[in-house]
Design brief:
By secondary structure, the chain is of the alpha+beta class. About 25% of the residues lie in helices and about 40% in strands. The strands form 4 sheets. Strands 1, 16, 17, 18, 21 and 22 form a 6-stranded mixed beta sheet that branches. Strands 2-11-14-13-12-15 form a 6-stranded antiparallel beta barrel. Strands 3-10-8-5 form a 4-stranded antiparallel beta sheet, with no helix packed on it. Strand 17 and strand 18 form a beta hairpin. The two termini are about 60 Å apart.
Length: about 375
Amino acid sequence: MEPNPAARAVRVLSILLMAFICPATVRAAEPRPVRVQTVEMTPSEVSLTYSGTVQARVLAELGFRVAGKVIERPVNIGDFVKAGQVIAKLDPTDLSLTHQADEQAVAAARAAAVNTRAEFERYGKMGQKSAAFLPSEFDKRQAAMLSAEAKLAQAERQLALASDQLSYTTLRADADGLITALPAQVGQVMTAGQTVASIAYAAETEVLVDVPENRLGEVRSATDISVTLWSSPGEMLRGRLREIGALADPASRTFAVRITLLDRPHNLALGMTAAVRFVHPAGAPVALVPATAIADQGGRPAVWVLDPRRQRAALRPVQVAAYRADGTVAIASGLATGDEVVTAGKLQLDPDMPVTAWTGPTR
C-alpha cells in the first residue's frame, strides 16, 4: 500500500534534520580552542607618552670669513661630512696677489732691519773714546734700527693676516655632521658671513616634544625615559632629559622638552617622528594583558578566565589601571598570578561552552 504523501514528507524531513543536527551536536561537544596568557603580577608604572621629532642638538650655519666668488662646492644636501672636509671654495686670485705683495713687503722690511742693525753695530764698535763718535749719531742709528725692526714685525703680522684670509677661501666642516641646506651655488658671489651651508652636528641627537604645563612635574620626576621611532616600532631607545624650556609657547601653552638619545640606530634620520615615554614607578602591582582580552560586562571591563580542570571559561570583572601605548592594559584588581586569561577567541564564548587552551603555532 502506498504510504501517505504527507507522512512520507515528514519522514524525509526528519532524516535530513538528523543528518544536519547530529554532526553539529557532536562538534558542539568538542572543546573550542582559545588563545590564553598566564597572568604575572608586576610593579605598576605611571607613564606619559608624547610624540616628538628627531633633531640635532647643534645646527650650525657655516659661511666664509671673506667675500668672493664660489668656484667649487663638492657636497650636496643630505651628505654626511667629516670634520675638515671641504664644503666650498672661493676664487683665491685677489687674496693670492695680496699675500704675495705682503711677502715682498716682509722681505723688504727684513732687509732694511738687517741693514740698520749692521750700521748701528758698526758705529757702536767705534767706542765713545773715538774722535769720530758722536752721541747724537749713535742715538739716530739706534732709532733707525728699532724703527726698521718694528716695521718688519708689522709686515710679518700683515703677512700672517693675508695668509689667514687666503685660507678662509676654503670652507671646511669643523665637526662631523649632516648637510641640511646649501643656499650657495657655484658662480655666486658671497659676502663675508653669508650662509653657505647648514650642518647638523652628529655628536648628539635629541627628540623635541611639547609637554603641557600640568605634566612638567611628572616629566621631571621620571626615572626612565624611552624613545620609539615610528619607523621602527619594535625598537626602544634610551633617552635622557636634557632641557625643559623656560617659556611656554604663546599659542599652544606647552613647554619644549628636549630628550637626548643615548642610543643611535642605523636608520635614524633628522625629522623622524618618535614617541617619548616618561615612566616613574607607582608601587602597586598590576597584571599586563593584551587589549584584545578586555570584554564588556554590563558596561564595565571584564576578562574571560579559563579553568583548565572544568574546561570552561568564566567572565570575571576587573579594574583597569591604565591603557598603555604598546597595546597592553594594566589590570589593578580582579586577577591573580597564574590565572589564564583568554586573549583571542572570546567573542563566541559562553560559560557553558567547553574550551581548551590553544597549543598550535602562533600566526
